[in-house]
Amino acid sequence: MPEPQCLELRVTSLESPDNDLFYHLSLESPQWQWRPGQFAMLRPTSWRHEPLWARPFSISDQDTNGLHFFFQRMGSGTDLLSQLRPGDVVTVWGPLGNGFTISHTTPTMILAGGMGLAPFMGLIRHHPIPQNLELFFGHRQPLANYPFSEIEDRILAWQVREQGPEDLEKLFRAIEVKIKGYSIDGNLLACGPLPFLRRIQKLALDHNANTQLSLENRMACGVGACLGCTVPTKSGELVQACTQGPVFKADAVDLSGEL
Amino acid sequence: MPEPQCLELRVTSLESPDNDLFYHLSLESPQWQWRPGQFAMLRPTSWRHEPLWARPFSISDQDTNGLHFFFQRMGSGTDLLSQLRPGDVVTVWGPLGNGFTISHTTPTMILAGGMGLAPFMGLIRHHPIPQNLELFFGHRQPLANYPFSEIEDRILAWQVREQGPEDLEKLFRAIEVKIKGYSIDGNLLACGPLPFLRRIQKLALDHNANTQLSLENRMACGVGACLGCTVPTKSGELVQACTQGPVFKADAVDLSGEL
Amino acid sequence: MDMQVAFAGLDLKNPIMTASGTFGYGTEFMPYGKLEELGAIVVKGISLAPRKGNPQPRITETACGMLNAIGLQNIGVEAFLRDKLPQLPWRTTPVIVNLYAQAVEEFAELTDRLATAKGVAGLEVNISCPNVREGGVQFGQDPVLAARVTEAVKKRAGALPVMVKLSPNVTDVTVMARAVADGGADCISCINTLTGMAVDIHSRRPCLANVVGGLSGPAIKPVALRMVHQVVRAVDVPVVGLGGISSAEDVLEFLLVGAHAVQLGTANFVRPDTAFKLVDEVRRLAEEMGISAWEDFRGTLELP
Amino acid sequence: MDMQVAFAGLDLKNPIMTASGTFGYGTEFMPYGKLEELGAIVVKGISLAPRKGNPQPRITETACGMLNAIGLQNIGVEAFLRDKLPQLPWRTTPVIVNLYAQAVEEFAELTDRLATAKGVAGLEVNISCPNVREGGVQFGQDPVLAARVTEAVKKRAGALPVMVKLSPNVTDVTVMARAVADGGADCISCINTLTGMAVDIHSRRPCLANVVGGLSGPAIKPVALRMVHQVVRAVDVPVVGLGGISSAEDVLEFLLVGAHAVQLGTANFVRPDTAFKLVDEVRRLAEEMGISAWEDFRGTLELP
Ligand SMILES: Cc1cc2nc3c(=O)[nH]c(=O)nc-3n(C[C@H](O)[C@H](O)[C@H](O)COP(=O)(O)OP(=O)(O)OC[C@H]3O[C@@H](n4cnc5c(N)ncnc54)[C@H](O)[C@@H]3O)c2cc1C
Ligand SMILES: Cc1cc2nc3c(=O)[nH]c(=O)nc-3n(C[C@H](O)[C@H](O)[C@H](O)COP(=O)(O)OP(=O)(O)OC[C@H]3O[C@@H](n4cnc5c(N)ncnc54)[C@H](O)[C@@H]3O)c2cc1C
Ligand SMILES: Cc1cc2nc3c(=O)[nH]c(=O)nc-3n(C[C@H](O)[C@H](O)[C@H](O)COP(=O)(O)O)c2cc1C
Ligand SMILES: Cc1cc2nc3c(=O)[nH]c(=O)nc-3n(C[C@H](O)[C@H](O)[C@H](O)COP(=O)(O)O)c2cc1C
Ligand code: FES
Ligand code: FES
């Protein structure tokens, strides 16, 4: 895999469909070689010592217009990111992590929870055989906030908005129906909040489906040095999600505890 | 004197003649009763814990367009202030301090060093008898960066740009020539860096001229509570520059030490 | 919700107190809010005789914090009782006087004077002063001396609750906490400032004339929270937590680890109406969280 | 200018070292700069056997700082010597191994192993570990134990310089400094992290599974600078300063109070090329200030 780099990149645009929670951030393109599931650490140069850490975001896509990220405002860091303006400079290091192992010729089921959609945008856009992709998407916020319609135009896509506890069950039932087929000759790629991934992990193990889970652990350095982002493997080791992951085989990690 | 207030005010404009060092900041007008020499503490609401303290600035003027400040970029705080944009919100408390004691009917000599010009803008603009005002202005940066031409149009004004050690001596000699007259029936109002004020103090005491000095001590609270801004009086007490000053009679304070 | 809290003979409308040395004599903040809405007012450290304090510069900014070396400048107990106290709403809001002295006998004398003064609701003993006569050891770092000061003050305090304020500059804060609790403290406040230093590489001089100073502000909150957590578990007397508090969340964090009340320090400088706004913000946050009385929340931290 | 600095048997190209636990095994940072341009590399704390460390969560952000409770996860000395050390440019840049053990004998054993290993330039003894067998007292808070550990390591270290790393969680850091200097330390590094805590008011749980953790980052710089200042004046051995360093100005501040070199810790997380850039920035700043050799600047702080 090509070596990551640390660069200072200018913001080329920042758009928010709802002017509040969801943001599409574009930076000048560093022309990285990357694969879906890899991420970058972002830290505007205007942050002095507070917040201290950069924040990790999946590389959503890269094209001639730039390097693209989708993020949701969660707390102090994303709040400040949402105030960036074109021309502002962001320190960026990446591409980081392993990314998904993808075979274009294999039927692939994408399972995304909320902003877990972000790492799949480029994959969906540039996949040579879009018929091989199918998306299941669970979300809390209105659908219009996510780039879902673009996805729907290209691949088969299902979505459920979680407004009550039952809604997500519908999604998982639909997934369960399909997973049987994929467990024979397909791949599953999943990204989303931890409880979502735990459910997917269980389904995957129950059905012995070839499944990759992308974790969103808390990270300080992104380069494997701080040991803050570790996740227990099934064998009891603790490995860094930033360098050994963020993508893990469903049968490789123990997600039962806090991360 | 009317009670100070703590308000959140929007930035209406921020202009920089040199796009670098000098800034004219306007906030929505709080309609304060104020007098020249009073100041306000400014802290943009976007500063979380860093920098920690608000920064003190002389109220330069207030009109229907807003509350006006002039500042020079010095360090972290003024650097961040220089990045404000219209609509940004600033926490402001003031008017603080005593301000100058002014008699419109008395011939008044204004002595300003650098941004020490700021507190006098409103006084010069609104003085009913501009012939009673005369300004001596020492500065390091190009004259165009200061609102000097506007002043020159209204009152008698002298200026020297300090590019070598001799330049400021010229200014002090000119002041010394004039001070004799003012010491009989006039007032002197001075504001500027500490070494500048020390020189003025000496001249004032030598000539027994009725002189008020405005200090720019480091301040944390601006309300008299932290005791960080104290200045020794001639009697050996330590008094808060923010509440007992920032304007002191030249014979009242001991400026020999660090402040 | 019911914001009241009572402990150690103090009855507070709400758990927000102001920290000594950061709220002047209280009067400075009158333009910015109603003093009677605060839980309690702790005034600037008061000594028997007026003190001039240290030379300038006395304060400097640090990352998310500040250093101060004011040196306990104050107008002395007589001027305080005569000129300042009567201006405070002491009938409705407890006024707690922070005591500073250089020797045990001086602490006792100061207590005598305050115990008979009308309008004083409690004493806070500052045993982390930088210069003391006795053996050159700081009261706040020696458990034996700390206990002796506490005893001396408690003996003369009569009905006045005695709060002792601990220094964080110790190896084991629970040793100090036990010492002052054994010495008779009705209540413990912690923490005072961490000793720190800043220098100017261009002038090659310390940023403070006193060379070292006390670090306060958000930077020290994790240390303060840890010490309050330790002290709450080490002694039976109620604890007042402080150090770096600036928001309603911060207040609840200290109550969660077991503090009965908190003090707001450096945050008073950052914005002069912070203490007043905080009372409302704490009420709002507590209600949002479904807290109806502090007893149900205080010390409910779940440990693994 | 000549950036070199030599002390305690170490010969550094420049005074910028990386702090243990914040620079992994060095290899993690290879994409971001040339390791051979650093003054020295101090690697993650190494123990005899591999250690898994503490459960998650292990890190949390604080105001201008962070808390960590990694619990000294490491691959153990054998794997380090076999898999990591050979990848480092140890021929041109001193590699210093940070030692962690739970008992004096274990420290001695670890030293034996490292003293004979090719490519190790020095040892840094971490005596501020949270869990030690001996009497439940932390090595870093007890001068007698600290001296014993130092002696044990020094005795087995042969020609290897021994640096002892002090904890800031003590009443008087000079007592600890004298103890380890008397124990034979060639050099002292200070400070390690301040013990702190953070809690989540919504889950009512500590933010770290370990409850408490070590506070690092810019927030602690004033405390670090004060302690380096004290230690430099208390002992004759050279001092390496660290704690909150993030800029060239910070580096010069520590040298000004008397440190021979510095270590960059948490700042390595904030941006992975910080250490590399810092070397250039320190050179530029020193030249701007007219410093031609560190001897002319080190410890030139003017005290009032
Ligand atoms: C590899 C990776 C890729 C990611 N990709 C994306 C992406 O493409 N788009 C996107 O919107 N987000 C993504 N995230 C999550 C994103 O990094 C966090 O939402 C962000 O760091 C939150 O920062 P904050 O300062 O706004 O929140 P904080 O103020 O730090 O925290 C707000 C709340 O979020 C929780 N939180 C913070 N960080 C994390 C975390 N890493 N995991 C779980 N909970 C957390 C906190 O505990 C708190 O409850 C990714 C994370 C990782 C590790
Ligand atoms: C009553 C009063 C009125 C003022 N009016 C104005 C005004 O109208 N316009 C204006 O431009 N400035 C004015 N100042 C000065 C202004 O407050 C400082 O320049 C500003 O606080 C610097 O902040 P900073 O964060 O940019 O600098 P910092 O990063 O804090 O410091 C940069 C450099 O300036 C020095 N410095 C910082 N604050 C002070 C201070 N208060 N006195 C002396 N040196 C200092 C520091 O030591 C350092 O060398 C006034 C100050 C006072 C007390
Ligand atoms: C400028 C200043 C002056 C202080 N003066 C006193 C004092 O007189 N007596 C005292 O016990 N504590 C004093 N303190 C300590 C505070 O009361 C408080 O313990 C400390 O600042 C930590 O809280 P904070 O982080 O909220 O400020 C002072 C603190 C500051 C910043
Ligand atoms: C995540 C992390 C891990 C650390 N691990 C070690 C360690 O293994 N051994 C050690 O001596 N110090 C360790 N430290 C302490 C640092 O080396 C350093 O002393 C401390 O962080 C203060 O410096 P800083 O503020 O520059 O980070 C660690 C610090 C952090 C933040
Ligand atoms: S984020 Fe630091 S090791 Fe993964
Ligand atoms: S600035 Fe706080 S007392 Fe003057």
UniProtKB/TrEMBL annotation, chains A, B:
Keywords: 2Fe-2S, Electron transport, FAD, Flavoprotein, Iron, Iron-sulfur, Metal-binding, Transport. FAD binds at R55, P56, F57, S58, G77, T78. It holds the Pfam family DHODB_Fe-S_bind. Binds 1 [2Fe-2S] cluster per subunit. InterPro entries: Cyt_c3_hydrogenase_gsu, Dihydroorotate_DH_ele_sf, Dihydroorotate_DH_Fe-S-bd, FAD-bd_FR_type, FNR_nucleotide-bd, PyrK_electron_transfer, Riboflavin_synthase-like_b-brl. Residues 4-102 form the FAD-binding FR-type domain. GO terms for biological process: pyrimidine nucleotide biosynthetic process. [2Fe-2S] cluster binds at C221, C226, C229, C242. Its cofactor is [2Fe-2S] cluster; FAD. It comes from the Bacteria. GO terms for molecular function: 2 iron, 2 sulfur cluster binding; flavin adenine dinucleotide binding; metal ion binding; oxidoreductase activity. SUPFAM superfamilies: Ferredoxin reductase-like, C-terminal NADP-linked domain, Riboflavin synthase domain-like. Belongs to the PyrK family. This is Dihydroorotate dehydrogenase, electron transfer subunit, iron-sulphur cluster binding domain protein.
From TrEMBL, chains C, D:
Pathway: Pyrimidine metabolism; UMP biosynthesis via de novo pathway. GO terms for molecular function: dihydroorotate dehydrogenase activity. It catalyses: (S)-dihydroorotate + A = orotate + AH2. The keyword Oxidoreductase applies. Residues 4-283 form the Dihydroorotate dehydrogenase catalytic domain. FMN binds at S20, K44, G45, N98, N126, K165, I191, G217, G243, G244, G265, T266. It is found in: Cytoplasm. The keyword NAD applies. GO terms for biological process: 'de novo' pyrimidine nucleobase biosynthetic process; 'de novo' UMP biosynthetic process. Its cofactor is FMN. Its main location: cytoplasm. The active site is at C129 (nucleophile). PROSITE patterns: DHODEHASE_1, DHODEHASE_2. Substrate binds at K44, N68, A69, I70, G71, L72, N126, N192, T193. GO terms for cellular component: cytoplasm. Keywords: Cytoplasm, Flavoprotein, FMN, NAD, Oxidoreductase, Pyrimidine biosynthesis. Binds 1 FMN per subunit. Its EC number is 1.3.-.-. It is an enzyme of class 1 (oxidoreductase). InterPro entries: Aldolase_TIM, DHO_dehydrogenase, DHOD_1B, Dihydroorotate_DH_1, Dihydroorotate_DH_1_2, Dihydroorotate_DH_cat, Dihydroorotate_DH_CS, Dihydroorotate_DH_I. Heterotetramer of 2 PyrK and 2 PyrD type B subunits. Catalyzes the conversion of dihydroorotate to orotate. Belongs to the dihydroorotate dehydrogenase family. Type 1 subfamily. This is Dihydroorotate dehydrogenase.
